[in-house]
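Trying the structure run again after the queue cleared.
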Amino acid sequence: RGCVAAHGFVVALALIGPWIYRGINGEAQKFFKLVWIPSAVAALVMGYSSSIGYFNSGIGFLGGAIISLTMLLVLLRDKNGSESARCRDVRLFIAASAAGILIFYQYSSFYWESQFSLLNTPITSGPYKHLRTTPEKARFVEQITSDIRMAANNAGNIVFYYNFPAGYLFSTLKPAANAIWLFSPRDYPRVNTRQLERYYANSANQPDIVVKFQYFFGFNDELRPVVDVPDHPIERLLASGQYHVELSQREYVIYRKD
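Done. Tokens:
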């Protein structure tokens, strides 16, 4: 995907910094330390914030990439500080190439979205209002915004599963889980659901509204089915007879506690 390649380019550009550092003068080295090192720390923080760490680290390393590029251009100047026409052309080519690559990737693809030309439908309500996406995803956002507003009337809390932490942005209800991102043990076998089970052992923590996803949108709007895990704590709650189906759509089913 283009967005993944863009992050990889940012990381690669930032990582040439330590090799450039030894060739620049004292003042430039101080400036380098003030920007590149904090950016490297930010890249590590972003990298360890998710299972797709390499992808996220490009966000933190953006400052490091910019300073590395700047120092490279400084290094290419003549030692006496003057600049020949040839040297100026080389520096201009490097800067323009880096900018061109990033701009190309910026518009070639988007994380979990279709290509830029297909993002032609503005979302008119909900937490993503005014953003542009595909017509199908815009319909989905409008639909789930309306459905949750209708189903959550007089409820106290809500839970979304699997793999939909963004759902809590669609409601003012309190999250009814010990984590906002509930992974499917089928997709992530190492997920420990015992903590969630202990959390729901207290009936006060059990959700009033359960939004269970049956399909997820992948790249280019393809729908990916969700495989049930009958042993999951939420599945056991739904099978307990305490919940009824309030609304049902192709992508999700909304349950309400009796």
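The CA atoms of residues 6 and 102 lie 6 Å apart. Worth checking whether this holds up in the mutant runs.
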